[in-house]
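If it is no trouble, can you show me the amino acids of a protein and the tokens describing how it folds?
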Amino acid sequence: MEFQEVSKHYSEIKALDKITFGLKKGDFVSLVGPSGAGKSTVIKLLIREELPSSGKIIVAGRDIARFNQRTLSLYRRKIGVVFQDYKLLPHKTVYENIAFALEVCDATNDEITERVPKILNLVGLADRAQSYPKELSGGERQRAAIARALIHSPKILIADEPTGNLDPANAKEVIDLLMRINRTGALVLLATHNAQMVNALQRRVIKVERGKIQTDAEKGKYL
């Protein structure tokens, strides 16, 4: 996956200014920078919620801006996204929240029955399957959100400030889970402003500031 001289403008504001970087299968990359630096814009462009003002985003050799609706739908199924505020459906159980992600893609009951328990086991929530979001701790809610993001076996997992609402112990659990998912071969892109967490990972760090890439380093530090 490559961003090639990608810019994004909102009227007179340059959210991104000709940024270029590449990610590959198996990478674990932290995207860091202060609020307003451009991290969220990178994510919106990558999931094609928005289109670049200029430049190209190439995934598997194709410009994602040129995807038709069917291709875009298939592409998005290969990207899992986890947000800071979980975005769980409050009136559905953990099991139902995850199953719903399959139902909207016309999965059969047999597929749902087979896949959901496996994902719940992976994230350590098998015993909370029938609980509602309000009955979960913050860390459990985030693990449920990760489970939902994983249900389509994505090749890319994007975590946008996934530990922002969590205490240090729960934050560590979530990061450990992301690392475990990464070891299965998924590309993980972690957007965060948590310097201590990023520095402890000792993985690649891309720092964005004022819409430009300031540094891109293997085993980088967030200073």
In short: The helical segments are 39-46, 69-77, 94-103, 109-122, 138-150, 168-182, 195-201. DSSP finds seven helices and ten strands in the chain. The chain has a mean pLDDT of 93. The first helix runs from residue 39 to 46.
